[in-house]
TrEMBL record:
Pfam families named in the record: Radical_SAM
GO cellular component: cytoplasm
Radical SAM core domain sequence ranges: 4-70
Species lineage: Eukaryota, Viridiplantae, Streptophyta, Embryophyta, Tracheophyta
Listed InterPro entries: Coproporphyrinogen-III_oxidase, rSAM, rSAM_sf
GO BP term, example: porphyrin-containing compound biosynthetic process
Protein name: Radical SAM core domain-containing protein
One Gene Ontology molecular-function label: catalytic activity
Length: 291
């Protein structure tokens, strides 16, 4: 495109009017169809993505199946599937309690996730990260930078940067941000603020594990061992051994083939969809093992 934009992401969220109204979206299906028409036919954008949200109030498996089907029929290069998170202190949290009607139960949410994995994989999408699916060659480079633990800059209110293994935020309020910029320009503070003192190997190791286990690539144990020591690798193998037996965690060799307990392990990843569904619990085990 003339302006240099090379990717477009549409926050569709659902393909039912009642779902969109229920989650407070300003757009309807008419606007969704118009946006897709502009992107695909008017601008000829190939690299575009659709975002969907599962576990919305009153959502049924039939509704979710329709949203997945219509997303696939639109033929995007990428689909992101997020589970609704009800954050404390928000308007949504005052209206709904997770796991209670009209929000779907945990079992239903798990069914939504499994349905998405099966439908999108069956349509030729690669499930390359817990919430992300893409056609070959269309992984989101922006997000992959996060998951690969590479450096990036963030600009603006509340933006976070990651440089030299250090993650640091910008102020969220305009007045504070303006003061921060003035101090930065005068040299009284650095872009890192006062966060350098928080940096330690344990935090870095847990960061690497958390991000890597979100992906289908998983954790490269050779690189991890070189950075954090062989004892950290052994701790992870020990804590995940029972979950390899249940099929929630996969051990892979150098050719990324499944191996059993007792064989040489080069990579650890979570299984799809069962392991991904328990990602929070499984990643927490790594934190305990490395802490």
């Amino acid at each position: 495109m003339v302006s240099g934009v090379n990717r477009v992401s549409l926050g569709v969220q659902a393909f039912q009017e009642e779902m969109l109204k229920g989650c407070g979206r300003a757009h309807g299906l008419k606007e969704v169809d118009e946006a897709i028409e502009i992107i695909v036919r008017s601008c000829n954008v190939e690299n575009w993505s659709i975002d969907l949200i599962a576990s919305l109030p009153g959502q049924t498996l039939e509704m979710w199946e329709e949203s997945l089907r219509r997303a696939i029929d639109a033929r995007p290069a990428h689909v992101s599937v997020y589970d609704l998170q009800v954050e404390k202190g928000t308007k949504f949290a005052k209206m709904y309690t997770p796991g209670e009607h009209p929000l779907p139960s945990e079992k239903q949410s798990a069914e939504f996730y499994s349905m998405a994995s099966k439908a999108l994989s069956g349509a030729g999408f690669n499930h390359y990260e817990i919430s992300s699916y893409c056609k070959t060659g269309y992984q989101c480079k922006h997000n992959s930078t996060y998951w690969d633990n590479k450096s990036f800059y963030g600009f603006g209110l509340g933006a976070t940067s990651f440089l030299n293994a250090l993650r640091f935020p910008r102020p969220k309020k305009l007045k504070d941000y303006e003061g921060y910029i003035q101090s930065l320009e005068s040299g009284t503070v650095t872009c890192f603020g006062e966060k350098n003192s928080d940096l330690n190997a344990g935090d870095m190791a847990m960061d690497v594990v958390m991000l890597a286990l979100r992906t289908a690539k998983g954790l490269d144990l050779k690189s991890f061992g070189e950075a954090f020591g062989s004892s950290s690798v052994m701790s992870l193998l020990d804590v995940y051994k029972p979950h390899v037996e249940t099929g929630h965690v996969l051990w892979l060799d150098e050719q990324r083939r499944n191996v059993t307990i007792g064989d040489a392990v080069s990579f650890i990843r979570l299984s799809d969809p069962d392991g991904f569904l328990l990602s929070n619990e499984l990643i927490s085990l790594a934190f305990c093992a490395l802490g």
